[in-house]
Give the backbone structure.
Amino acid sequence: MLAVLAHGFGYSGMYTGNALVPCELPIIFSRPSIDVLAPVSRAIHRQKIISLNYQSHTSGFSQREIAPFALVNDGLRWHVRAYDRKSKEFRDFVLTRMADVSILLIRPFKV
């Protein structure tokens, strides 16, 4: 229903050209680099661990090894859900904060 209000679709399902009520929609602020997205998606498909440099708001810059298993878009940013070997927890990592991503040549992980 909110999409109908925001995009101006009428009862017929046709675009009317105007929103039914004023509405502000979020703009995607950042798009992940193909140099990051490609190895992350390959690692998910092949169930591999990746090594990367990560810039966190809370802990700053660090080297990480993560086991990614899902990509998520919250409407503003792309994240990867992964097991973090450093913290030994499942966490979300923002793709645009990643650099130097490479797949490690070790056995596949089990979640």
About this structure: Strands lie at 50-56, 60-73, 78-84, 89-94, 98-103. The longest helix spans residues 34-46.
